[in-house]
Design a protein that fits this description.
Low-confidence stretches: none
Structural class: alpha/beta
Bound molecules: ligand AR6
Number of domains: 1
Strand order of the largest sheet: 1-6-5-2-4-3
Pfam families: Macro
Helix content: 25-40%
GO molecular function, one term: O-acetyl-ADP-ribose deacetylase activity
Shape: globular
Protein name: O-acetyl-ADP-ribose deacetylase
Order of helices and strands: EEHHEEHEHEH
Largest sheet: 6 strands, mixed
Number of helices: 5
Organism: Rhodanobacter denitrificans
CATH architecture: 3-Layer(aba) Sandwich
Length: 172
């Protein structure tokens, strides 16, 4: 299975692309987004600013993904995606979270990259219950990788507790 689950700081990983759990502005924030911008340096913010807006202040809608260089990060690329804010589960959250994972992999393939690390998108500030997010993320990635086993995915959790949740979701 080309999916591994680790607990680590995603900004330290030497994969082709790390995924950022961003907000629609793509201009940085807290959590993993803040950590990625700090580690990449100010050139990342400048690169994000140059991405076109689809509405005032919106460079990436929920479920979509954009790619920039990684600048000072060990990873040469950052794929920014915007996870759904948890609103109880009946607001299309699962489909939007699945779309984040599919669109990130789509960009990876388009650039002919091979290794990618995802954080637990939406599981922090956006409030998605971890068990449910892990079920969506692992099912989507499994499904995608079934037709493309050259890609290697790392699910990069920030704590051992979160890693256990994702491992449980991936267990057959
Ligand atoms: N490496 C890996 N995972 C991390 C790291 C890190 N360095 N830092 C935090 N996490 P969050 P969201 C975990 O809140 O819920 C931002 O302000 C964290 O423990 O970063 O999608 C954006 O700008 C949690 O499990 O993202 C948006 O406004 C997971 O990453 C908003 O937060 C995701 O938590 C997005 O919220």
């Amino acid at each position: 299975m080309p999916i591994q689950i680790i607990s680590a700081d995603i900004t330290r990983l030497s994969v082709d692309a790390i995924v950022n759990a961003a907000n629609p502005s793509l201009l940085g924030g807290g959590g993993v987004d803040g950590a990625i911008h700090r580690a990449a340096g100010p050139a990342l913010l400048r690169a994000c600013r140059t991405l076109p807006e689809s509405a005032p202040g919106v460079r990436c809608r929920t479920g979509e993904a954009r790619i920039t260089p990684g600048f000072a990060l060990p990873a040469p690329w950052v794929i920014h995606t915007v996870g759904p804010v948890w609103r109880g589960g009946d607001d299309g959250e699962a489909e939007l979270l699945a779309r984040c994972h599919r669109n990130a992999l789509h960009l990876l393939r388009e650039r002919r990259l091979r290794t990618i690390a995802f954080p637990a998108i939406s599981c922090g500030v956006y409030g998605y219950p971890a068990e449910q997010a892990a079920a969506v993320a692992t099912a989507t990635l499994r499904d995608e990788l079934a037709r493309d086993d050259d890609i290697e995915v790392t699910l990069c959790c920030f704590s051992d507790a979160m890693r256990a949740v994702f491992q449980q979701a991936l267990a057959p």
